[in-house]
Each structure stands twice: as C-alpha cells, then as structure tokens.
Task: structure prediction
Amino acid sequence: MNDFSTRFPKVGDEPTHDSLAEAELTAIQDEIALLAGPLEERRTDMPRRVRFECDMNAVPLPLEVANPTYASTLKRWFDAAVALVAIVVLLPVLAGVALAIKLCDRGPILFVQNRTGYLGKRFRLYKFRTMVVNAEELKKSLQAQNIHGDSSPDFKLRDDPRITRIGGFLRRTSLDELPNLFNVVRGEMALVGPRPTSFDAGTYSMRHLPRLAVRPGLTGLWQTSGRANIGFDQRSDLDISYIRRMSFIFDLSLIIRTIKAIRKGDGAM
Result:
C-alpha cells in the first residue's frame, strides 16, 4: 500500500485513488467513442470524414465559420444573383442551343447526372447533352483509352467518339455548361469552386477529401491553370489551394480568366 493510502485510508464505499483514475479513463473513453461513433459509421459518414481530413491537413471549412464571412454568407447570395441574371440575359442562347441539340439527333436536350458536391453529398447536375444518347453504356468499352489511365476514376478521352457534331462546338465554347447556372441558383453549386465529380466520394483517397470543403463550382483554379489533362491528384491539389486562398477578389479574378479563356476557345469552364 502506498503512502497516500496509509495516511488517508479508504472510508466505507469511497473509491480508491486507483479506481478513481480508472473511472475517469473509462469516462473519457466512453465520451470519445460517443463522439466518434461506431467504426462502420465513421467509414460511411462522409461529412465527418471530410471534416477530419480538413482538420488534419489544415484546410479551412469556409461554410462552417460561425462569424459571417464572404465564403460563408456573401458568396452564396452573390453567386445566386449573378447566376439568375445570367439565365435571364442568356435565355435566347439557351433556347437556340436547345433547338440545335433537338434537331441534331432528336434526343434529350439536357444531360442530367448525379455529381459529388459539398461534404460528399450527391446532387443532380444539369448540362446540355453533347454526346450520343447511349454514351454511358459505351464508357466501359472505352475505359482502356482513358488518358488518365484505365484505373483512374477521372475519365477523359482524346477525340471522344461519343461526342455529337453539335456537342463538339458546345464543349469548345463551354455552352454545354450553361444549365449549371440553375444548380448555382438552387445552392448546389457556386460560380467558382472545385468541379463536381461524376464518381462518388467513396472512391476518393484521403488526400482528395478536403476538396469537398466548399460547394463545387462552374469554374475554378484547375480549369484556368492551363493544365486540363493533369491527373486527379494534381487537380485536387489545385482545388485545395483554391479553398485556402478563397476570397471575393480571387473569385472575381478566376471568373475574368474563365471569360478570357472561353473567348479564346479554350473552353475552361
């Protein structure tokens, strides 16, 4: 028995010093387990995984800042207002593109696809259709030609045979992305941010998850960097760099760079 126990013996049902320490340790472990949740839940709870990776890599979560900032408050309303005005101004263009697609092959005007957005949440993204109707069915047979490698979740082909005649023009001019403006108005996207991926966040590696710390955008640092054919690792690094530098001035500069790229026919959006 130690000196403490000799000088201050246990009285009745009073817990010993060792048992107190054990009880405190057990309480702390229970609290950690409660916060962490079951192992399976931690693996499937994508918002929790994104927040954890952001914390581990010192990547801010701008939309979760308590005090009003540009990223958490003003950006949402600025983006929605600009997108709404753009839709109204571009209505004749939208109608003309829709008619051209319909006359091309009588297929659907819009291409609607589930994409990965903020904190890994999936949403329905709207684009003008630029490929043949059965493009998704043909994707598997073309996987070996993926410029990023047949094992990469990011899929892109040189001279993609699935693109229609009108679709090539729409892609070069980025007119196919105009329906994304409706996603911006709905709050699922922003004007500037990481482009939303067609593949689920469950296929992301841990280093990719911080790119989900903000709403996805119509354009961003990756699109305006002139590095269109880089792999998903480097693309994610650029997206995370944007999140760290996010500001109204930076967003405005990327929008201006995008407009200039589109005028040159680079199709940066």
User: Anything to note?
Assistant: The mean pLDDT is 83. The longest strand covers residues 110-116. The first helix runs from residue 3 to 7.
